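pinned: reference chain
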Amino acid sequence: MNSTTSLSAISHLLQHRSQAIKKLIVFVPREKASSRIQSLLTLAEQQGIAMDYQPTPKQKSLEPLEPLLAQLRPYPYADWKEFLSQLSNLSSARVLALDHLQDPQNFGALCRTAEGLGWNGVIIPKDRSVTVTSGVYNASVGAIETLSIAQITNLAEALRKLKDAGFWIVGTALGENSQTLEQLPPIEKIVLVLGTELEGISSLVAKTCDFLVRLPLAGKVQSLNVSATGAILMNAFKP
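pinned: its structure tokens
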């Protein structure tokens, strides 16, 4: 079972999807809790969420202890067929596809950006790919619970089905075949494909893309972190 100690994530869940929280475990007496903790506990009570007050656990490191922990129900991945059907009926849509991304922090940050910019959802492979974990909850500050995430068996095949649904596939890649944002035509239905932190998108996925795009950089580094690249491009393609 996943959990989160991020107060921002807990606040997001309490306000937007409280059913995701199975129980709150509180490690500080109610009367000694900060005003922020007090407000979260009050909101949890209003939502009918169970609360378990426990003595503060013995500290095993120099890191400060978190006063609150949310035990979460299993993450409800979106059904791929339903997800695809809903997207097919839209005249304008934005989907993020991640080609075997591994890092939970990058995944959470990308989901936070996608949710915040109003993207329609995210697709990830079932195998050799990051999944929704406690670290992802924290990095996304709970945004994954208000964002559709579908797991698919074969990313290239899923991209072809999205093409059939009217989407244009835009992958990120370095090289002479990639274009800048200014060179792309206006796109109403887009799938933005990001690859792994070290290898980028696979050759098979790259062949499936309609366009390959790069970010021109003014400094000495060749590329940005995948979550930074994703944030810039998602903002450029935002609805």
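why pinned: The first strand starts at residue 3 and ends at 4. Helices lie at 7-16, 35-46, 80-88, 104-116, 134-139, 155-164, 203-208, 226-236.
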